[in-house]
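User: Let's play a game. I give you a shape written as tokens, and you guess the letters that built it. Ready? Here's round one.
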């Protein structure tokens, strides 16, 4: 069998398309980590999950979630075996490359108002200019009020943009290397040109913008200091291809794996081993901080559960972690016939051939990589084959071409078996990325099989 599409036809293909449409809507509505947590909690509660608070006792089948600062999430379905005997874990990240506003972002220059920015994660700066951008995020006022901001997604909303040079004046610019064509400090978002009426003082356009923000959101200029505001591509994810076999949208990396992992967890029933889904923040900048995978948040959550099953002891927590199995659910690189030279054809992922496993990641010489053991890979193969899941093994480009990393090493450092398992993506880290609907569905099936049958 060559591709997923030869496996699914007729009624089965309709299931693939229906599942993909639900995901397309999710991706269109979720463009920040906070939005991802909010939507994931709503889906979890609809499936019977409850926040973990004031819980006195655990029993098999119980469903709980832990919400960490509205930016990361851990969800559990309690298994028949004690947690100390190990868990089956799916771990994905919910942040994506973007452009953040600085702490003091608003300024005026020659009759134009701008937001000053600082890009987040690995982007090609030049891909973010001359395109519609939306502003998403939260502003936290001193009185404790949180104000959600979303500008640019509705058809009647205004949009923002970062300007680019016209070709006629770009001769010098076009001689620069790709990482210098647009400098990071030049990613300033144009937000207005209309001066406040009757204003003859300094910065009348800035004053008008502040008046508009005050009127709509109650925001003062100082409130930017306690805000998290992100510029992301405006618009919905769309079906790609005349056959509608693919989806193009912002944030496949890594919300496509987060969504499929979450859906698999929500459908987990009466597991033998406790089923877990971790959705983390900050992966694109190193997984650090209180909401990243390096945080003690997940360990603390496991400790809380162990304390309800047994008298807590640190050894029980250590045993629970080292006896666990994990799929680091993160996207892989899909082969692109337009750029064949960066891939090695025997060890690359292809659209339509199912979920991709990366035994190791890292870069030249496998540096900064977590490499799954041969024994764990054999178990993975058996689970996939037993459940007729299409899968492939791949690397992220040729040996000395580049590479990449995930959260796999962080959990592997806790002495658990981990392997990267995700969906092949083209245009990774671009404002709009592309994935196959067939691979999306096959990953969802792979994650379900892993939660149910991995020993």
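Assistant: Ready! My guess for every position:
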């Amino acid at each position: 069998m060559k591709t997923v599409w030869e496996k699914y036809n007729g009624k089965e293909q309709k299931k693939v398309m229906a599942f993909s449409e639900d995901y397309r809507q999710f991706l269109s509505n979720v463009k920040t980590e906070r939005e991802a947590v909010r939507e994931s909690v709503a889906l979890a509660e609809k499936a019977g999950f409850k926040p973990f608070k004031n819980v006195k006792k655990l029993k098999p089948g119980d469903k709980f979630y832990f919400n960490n600062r509205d930016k990361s999430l851990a969800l559990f379905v309690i298994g028949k075996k004690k947690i100390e005997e190990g868990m089956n874990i799916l771990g994905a990240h919910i942040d994506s490359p973007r452009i953040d506003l600085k702490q003091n972002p608003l300024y005026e220059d020659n009759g134009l108002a701008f937001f000053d920015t600082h890009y987040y994660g690995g982007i090609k700066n030049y891909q973010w200019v001359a395109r519609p951008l939306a502003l998403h995020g939260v502003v936290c006022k001193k009185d404790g009020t949180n104000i959600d901001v979303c500008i640019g997604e509705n058809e009647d909303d205004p949009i923002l943009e970062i300007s680019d040079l016209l070709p006629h004046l770009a001769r010098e610019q076009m001689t620069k290397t790709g990482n210098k064509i647009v400098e990071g400090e030049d990613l300033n978002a144009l937000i207005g040109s209309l001066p406040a009426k009757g204003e003859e003082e300094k910065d009348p356009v800035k004053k008008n913008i502040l008046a508009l923000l005050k009127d709509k959101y109650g925001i003062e200029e100082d409130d930017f200091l306690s805000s998290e505001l992100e510029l992301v591509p405006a618009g919905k994810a769309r079906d790609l291809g005349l056959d509608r076999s693919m989806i193009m949208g912002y944030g496949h990396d890594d919300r496509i794996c987060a969504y499929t992992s979450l859906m698999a967890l929500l459908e987990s029933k009466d597991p033998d081993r406790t089923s877990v889904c971790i959705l983390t923040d900050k992966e694109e900048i190193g997984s650090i901080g209180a909401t990243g995978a390096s945080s003690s948040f997940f360990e603390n959550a496991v400790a809380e559960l162990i304390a309800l099953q047994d008298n807590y002891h640190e050894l029980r927590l250590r045993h629970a972690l080292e006896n666990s199995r994990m799929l680091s659910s993160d996207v892989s690189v899909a082969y692109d016939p337009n750029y064949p030279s960066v891939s090695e054809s025997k060890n690359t992922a292809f659209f339509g051939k199912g979920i991709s496993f990366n035994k190791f990641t890292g870069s030249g010489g496998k540096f900064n990589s977590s490499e799954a053991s041969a024994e764990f890979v054999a178990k993975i193969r058996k689970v996939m084959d037993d459940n007729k899941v299409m899968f492939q093994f791949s690397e992220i480009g040729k040996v000395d071409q580049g590479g990449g990393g995930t959260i796999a090493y962080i959990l592997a450092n806790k002495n658990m078996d981990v392997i990267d398992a995700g969906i092949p993506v083209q245009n990774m880290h671009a404002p709009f990325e592309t994935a196959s609907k067939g691979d999306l569905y096959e990953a969802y099936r792979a994650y379900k099989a892993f939660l149910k049958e991995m020993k």
